[in-house]
Structures are given as C-alpha cells and as structure tokens.
Amino acid sequence: MATNKSYYDILGVKRDASDDDIKKAFRKLAAKYHPDAGGDEQKFKEVSEAYTTLSDPKKRREYDQMLMFGGIPGADFGGSGGRGRYTYTTNVGGDWSDIFNSVRGGDGGFGGFDFSSIFGGAGGARAANRPTKGSDLTMSVDVSAEEAFRGATRKATYRVPSTGEEQTLTIKIPAGAVDGGKLRYRGRGEYGTNGGDRGDLVITTHVAEHPVFKRDGADVRMELPLSIFEATLGATVDVPTPDGTEVRLKVPAGTQDGKTFRFRDLGAPNVKRKGSRGALFVTVRVKVPTMLSKKERDALSALRDADTRDYREEVMRYATK
Asked: Which of 5, 76, 198, 274 has the fewest CB atoms nearer than 10 Å to its CB?
C-alpha cells in the first residue's frame, strides 16, 4: 500500500470534504476496484481502509490531528512503524477474507455500507440468489378447558400466501395446554426462495375459562362453598378435580372463610415438565344463609344470646375512649 498518500488523496477528495462527498467518492472507487467486478484487490483495500477512517467522525478527527503534525499516516496509521508512532486500529485490520465475504454477500462490511447497491450484477446478484428461509405463518385454535386438561387433536386447514394452496394438518394439543401457548410445526410455513427451507407454522392456543377451575400454569385453583355449620362443626366434603375424579377433603372444625387447602399432583399436566402435574388449591368460601325458617331463626337467636365471646376485641382496642 502506498505510504506517501493520505486517505484524502486515496479517495480523491479535499481535506474539507463533506461526509456525502466522501461516501460518493468511495462508492465510485469501490465499484471500480472491487475484486468481484474484476478490479484491483490491493487498491480496493486502500480505498476501503480510507473510507473506514474518514466516514467515522471520531476516527477522522484523530486522523486529521496526525496530519497536522506534518506526517501522512496513510497505511502507517494502523501500524507500528508510522512517522507519528501512533497506534490505531481500524475495523479492516483483520482477516480480509472475512470482510470480502461480507461485502460479496451484500452485508456491508464497512460501517454499515451496503455494497449490494453498487454491484447489481456481482455481489448484489449473489446476495439475491442466496437461499433464504421462508417466513413463519401463524394461526390460532380455540380449545375448551376440558380439552386443555386432557389433550386433544384438531384438523386444521390453512393457506400458503405465496402459492395460494391450501394445506391440512392434524394439530396435537398437549394435555395441560395453556391459554396463549405456542405450538410450532417446523417446515409447514411459507416456502423459501432459491432452495431455502420452509418457515414454520406457529399455532396459538386460546383456552376457554372453566366455570369452576381456574388455571395458574399447571396449578389449578377453585373455590369450595361451605355452610356456616360445616365450617363451624367440621365436615368431610368430596371435591371434584380437573381430571374428572374426586378427592375427599376433611374440613377441620372452626375453619375460616378463605382457608386454602393444597393437593399435590392433582392440578393440570405440566407441559414444560413431562410426566409431572401441578397442584390443586381449594379455597373455602363460607356461605351465610339469606333466608331462615322461624325454627332456624329461633335456634340461631338462642345460640347468639348464649355466646359470650368478644369477636371484635382486636378491632375495638383502637376505638376512641
């Protein structure tokens, strides 16, 4: 590489050239010297290194400061034997084969510069002919709460946009499917170009809410109504589970409203951990009767009058005396 020329000389621009002037000069010289266009690879290296420095405001400022001392950094700007003894590293000081590969692919190896805009019949054509994977296609499927618990299958038909053809597949909804979950079918999306692979088909599951069971991932929550008598005296209650069976819950005497009981492995299947299940959480809701017979009212009134407990002791201690 010549050592008696500055980067400005190499690009053929003045010292006060604008960024636009530098870019235009580079485009013209790069098109002329690019190896893919039959140009001089050595000159292309000089042009590329000059552009890399002068197109970066910070690097250009440092380079201009070197020129002010009377030296011409040029090729020595990044070396160890330069007149200014100034160590400087550019992004083109490494393996040129990697950079040329990037350029030939239209990736713009220098500061984001897109060489495909220069070489319409060389690098640009090669980039255009590169195999490209097709895009993913998306669709959704509605699933009942029961199907999400136990799993299900669906026949689905969809259309490939590029060809208009209809394709059909069987969707396997896994046991434990969640609302908003994604099912990916590889190679069932849009067709690739130039021999590229097909994209994927991504299916989103929309799971309907269950009137009793509420999902929290693999865990399932439900509320269990109890009478004031069951909560007060205790009871044994059969509780339904998501898989359609029942579990027996022993309610201790004096159980309060909002008390939650946990049953391990009685929730939904865990789609992230095959073979495992979440828990079933049962929250007690004590129901107060709204209508009483005269006999019930008299009995409850007698119990109330005989009750000497102070249920509001903790609250009333904050009352104003």
From this structure: 274
